[in-house]
Design a protein that fits this description.
By secondary structure, the chain is mainly alpha-helical. It is about 55% helix and about 5% strand. It binds adenosine monophosphate and tryptophan. The site of adenosine monophosphate has 17 residues, from α1.
């Protein structure tokens, strides 16, 4: 199947990105025609630094390759290297109503942050995302839960277009992992995100000491006092993280120990920190090596952009023809 996903070049990757999306891309690239893009045009819709953006773009590429994105298996490129993305955005914007865009949760939330100066780009964000996806006749889009609404919108745009112009686009489907919404270490009611402060997330390049420190101050189960309550530890954010990094045996021991108050939060957190670091260490080591050669990363991205553009140009020509733009 054809797969597309994207990520903004906005600094460090955290465990939410990794478990909710990136790790899945690595797995799925083995069996699908994968296209992975660093979506730098999307980054312009929020606060960004023009002088930092090039460095952040290369850093994100380095991170993703270190995690296991294989340019032999996935087409891996930077969005702005393929101008067909923005070209299609305009066409698609004429197949979606203003009302639909204003209803997007992310738009509503982000426009609250700076009420007096809501950028039009923030409103258009999901149209650009729909263009990313539809441009390649994508069937599956592996993302975290927060992006599902945008994929629904892409489906709707595809439907509207097909209805008026004739069958052109495939309606893509979102694909989630078992961690579609990893929660903040400080507030289990809120999703893990880069924007809420360093102690709320674990970054993929955190050292063991940092992970221990961050987990040390992380909120555990708010209802932990009711230790006899079956399933109590299921609700604990820390226990939830164990599911992704610890063996079944370790989890059983921790659950039993926690319920019977045989182990405290501290040892539970220490074990988790070690298991998380065991997974991150090889990624960090690989990252160090490939970061020594940013020119090689640039070449990989250029090569990827060429491959992506071949597909994009062919599809774009067909789309323009259908819309009546070729004469
Ligand atoms: P972002 O960092 O917001 O550009 O997100 C990149 C990818 O990671 C998207 O597919 C998001 O849905 C996913 N993602 C971001 N935060 C989380 C989270 N807390 N839990 C699970 N997935 C997430
Ligand atoms: N909006 C996505 C995010 O913030 C990034 C993204 C842009 C994307 N275009 C995409 C994800 C296309 C999947 C498919 O995470």
């Amino acid at each position: 199947m054809k797969l597309f996903s994207g990520i903004q070049p906005s600094g460090t990757l955290h465990l939410g990105n990794y478990l909710g999306a990136v790790k899945n891309w690595i797995k799925l690239q083995e069996e699908h025609e994968s296209i992975i893009s660093i979506v730098n045009y999307h980054a312009l819709s929020s606060d960004f630094s023009a002088s930092l953006l090039p460095k952040q773009t290369i850093e994100m590429a380095t991170d993703l390759i270190a995690c296991g994105i294989d340019p032999q298996k996935s087409i891996f490129f930077v969005q702005s290297d393929v101008p067909e993305h923005t070209e299609l955005t305009w066409i698609l914007s004429c197949f979606v109503s203003l009302g639909e865009l204003k209803r997007m949760t992310q738009f509503k939330e982000k426009s609250q942050e700076n009420k007096k100066n809501v950028k039009a780009g923030l409103l258009y964000y999901p149209v650009l995302m729909a263009a990313d996806i539809l441009l390649y006749q994508t069937q599956i889009v592996p993302v975290g839960e927060d992006q599902l609404q945008h994929i629904e919108l892409a489906r709707m745009i595809a439907r509207n277009f097909n209805k008026k112009i004739g069958k052109t686009f495939i309606e893509p489907r979102g694909v989630l992992t078992k961690a579609p919404r990893l929660m903040s270490l400080k507030n289990p009611q809120e999703k893990m995100s880069k924007s809420k402060g360093e102690n709320t997330y674990i970054a993929l390049n955190d050292s063991l000491e940092t992970i221990e420190k961050k987990l040390g101050s992380a909120i555990t189960d708010p209802a932990r006092k009711k230790i006899s309550d079956p399933g109590t530890s299921q609700k604990c954010n820390i226990y939830h993280l164990h599911q992704f990094f610890s063996t079944l045996k370790e989890r059983e021991e921790i659950e039993q120990g926690c319920r019977r108050a045989k182990i405290g939060c501290l040892s539970c957190k220490k074990a988790l920190a070690q298991n998380i670091f065991a997974e991150l260490k090889p990624i960090q080591e690989k990252r160090k090596k490939i970061a020594e050669n940013p020119e090689k990363i640039k070449k990989i991205l250029q090569k990827g952009a060429k491959k992506a553009q071949q597909i994009a140009q062919k599809n774009m020509k067909e789309i323009k023809e259908k819309v009546g733009l070729l004469f």
